[in-house]
Each structure stands twice: as C-alpha cells, then as structure tokens.
Request: fold
Amino acid sequence: MDPAIITLCVLAVAAFLFITELIPLAVTAMAACTALGILGVLPSKQVYAGLSNSTVVLFGGMFVIGAAMFKTGLAEAIGIAVVKKAGTNQVPLMAAIMLVTIALSAVSSNTGTVACLMPVIIGICQAANISPSKELMPLAIAANVGGTITMIGTPPNVIVTGALTAAGLPTFGFFEFAYIGIPLSIIIVLYTLFIGRHFIPDKQAGAMDEEAVKAAAEEAGASGDSAPKSKTKMWISGIILLGVVACMALGLKNLPLHTAAVTGAILCVITGCLKEKEAYAGIDWVTIFLFAGMLSVASAMEKTGAGKMIADTVVNMMGDNPNPYVLTAVLFLISNVLTQFMSNTASAALLAPIGISIAQSIGADPKPVLMALGIAASMAFATPMATPPNTLVLGPGGFSFNDYAKVGVPMCLISLVASVIIIPIFWPF
Reply:
C-alpha cells in the first residue's frame, strides 16, 4: 500500500480517538507514531525522534519552573495580592483578576492559576455581596487568552512551533507569540469589561468541586498543605523565572532556549524550591508525549506526501488561486470549532502539518497559517469542556452550556477578525 495512504489511515484513526478520547491523548499520539514505524512508513530511528526535540526539552524545563512558582506559593501570593488590592467593586475586581491571570498564565499553568485563585475570588465575592459567577467566567477567559503570549504559555503554541521544526522550516521565537497574544489579550479584556460582562449570568455560587480544584492545583505543582510558605523560596523561584526569561529575551548564542529552561529547572531543585520528585510531577507528561508523537506523524505526512494530498483537496475545493487571508480564516474557524469540543493540544497537533502543506501548496509562508491555527486552538471560550479552566469554574459559577456560548462565541469571532488582521502584519504571506 502507498505510504501516503497508510499515513492518512493512521491519521484518521488518531483523529477519531482524539475527538472521542476513548483512550488517553498521549497514548493515541504515541500509538500513531508506533504504528507508522511498524507499518514501515517511518524508519525506526525517526519513530520516537520527537522525544529528543529541543522544544520538548524547553517545555519540560519550563513546566518545572512553573511548578516551583506554585509550590513555593509565589504564583498564588501574586494573584491574591493583586486581587485583594482591587477592592470590592465588580468591574475593577474583574479587571484585576483578568490581568493577573493573563500574566501568570503566560509563564505557568493556566489550569493551576485558576485552581489557586478561584477559592480566593469566591471568598471575596461572597464578602462583598457580588455574584461569584460574574468574576469566575472572566477568570477562565483570561487563563485561556493569557497562554497565547509566550511559546510555553499554552501547548498549541509549542505544537505549531514543533510542526515547523519537523518540516525543516524557520520556527517561532519564544516571545514572538506576544505580537498577537498581547493585542488579543487587550482586546478580550476590554470586550469583557465593557460588553461581555453583561452576558455573564448573575447566579449564586454553586458547589465547587474541591477534589478537582485540588487535583488541578497539585498537578501544576501547588502545595496541598496550608503551612506558611517560605518567603525566601518565593523570592528564589521568582528570580529564577526572571533570569530564565531574561536569557531567552537576550537570545544568547551559548544559552539557547532549552538550555536556559533546563538550567532554571535544575536551579529550582538545587535551591530547594522543589524536591526532585516534585519536579518530575510538575511536568505535564501528556503534553510532552502528545507533542513528541505527533511530531513523528507530521514528519511522515511531509515525507510521504499525505499532507500534500489533503492540501490539494482543500485548495481545490476553494477554487483556483485561493486568497491566503480567506484560507487562513477558514483554517482558524476549523481549529476554533474543534477546540470547543476536544483538547486544544490535540486539535493543534492534527491541523498543524495540514496547515503547512496547504500554505506550501498555494505558495504562502506557513508561519502565519500556523500562528492562526495555534491561536484559534487557544480561543476556547464557547463550551465548558473546551479547556480545563472552563470546566473548573462551571460548578462554582452555576453556569450552563448556553452561558458559555453567549459569552464565548462573540469572543471567538472577535479573535478571528483580530487574528486575520494582525497576524499578516507580523508574518506576511
């Protein structure tokens, strides 16, 4: 059988399993690349080559640094301090919640940020006689959009970067995502404060799934005890994070991104901010293995021509010489719709290699297309199952499915328009 057909069959099965989640996402990804090796599509040396990718190493290091922020209590302390200083007026409190959540989500787990801040926000709302629902929805929204600012802020950013690497194309820089992430964050915050908040229902606090919140916080690295946190370790973890970010910003030749991240992770353990086992536990292994597995799938799609077959089909459906702006908008919509009902990591992993092939087939630079796909996968506002932050606030906010749709769908459309306008400015077709 033609290797391209085999690759497409494996991709189709993977897509079905990603959508249904009949088996864990990471298992699906690794099974896909394993199948390609067994079927002879990929040589044995390339089947698991994604695990040695420098981006995987970068992501793993930053996971550990993020875990240190939560373990020492730094992330929670920053969030609580900002939120409490905002007072008890609904709109200023909303602004403070969104801004601090965006900042924390850009460099650490957005799920962990929501899990740590949510109990505090509920307490403040109850004391000030404000409906928690009015502040919890903006919390989830900010956590989703905040991740778009850096490469490690959200898995889709890493996925699209890795896809470019697998295809042998120029990749995105660590802070390059901020060109679209910061404008989008500003737009979403302003929309929420002035328009979106009127669509957020005014409901009494529902039951908070304390076990889910605790699990999410612990997964991010947060300590489960209420013992006083060491201020010294807070400072150390903060300095390590700032040092790593500074090294990445300077672009030092002898200290590439992944080396800076691993160095920071090592320092977190050496200084006692994290124990060795806590560092391992702080790594999101699902994202790591999903990323590594789909890198191999992407490589197979490129080498066998399977990606080109899909691209040719899509381009032919859009007629001769399709407009790259229209094509990007269509791919944005596909990615955004998928991410409302399945993992944003999985949707980005599925579409990234296809996006590259489509861009190349019309003679366009793949970078703006990939950026649009990654951003679209993170604009998960419209359903409660779209992203863990949305799910975490579901119960405490007393929200229904329609509540997410009323608030989230306009934001998705605004993100589409903003992305189609802004992305080509920084990454021309």
Summary: DSSP finds 21 helices and no strands in the chain. The radius of gyration is 21 Å. The mean pLDDT is 86. The first helix runs from residue 3 to 20.
